[in-house]
Amino acid sequence: NPDYFPQVNEAIIQSKPDYWKLYYPHETFVKLLNDTVKILSRREKLSIWVEGAYGTGKSHAVLTLKKILDASEEDTKSYFDKFHLSQDLLNSLQSQKNQGKIITVHRYGSSSIRNDHQLVFAIQESIENSLKEAGIQNKGANSLSKSVIKWLEEQENK
Question: Which is higher by pLDDT, 26 or 120?
Answer without folding.
Answer: 26
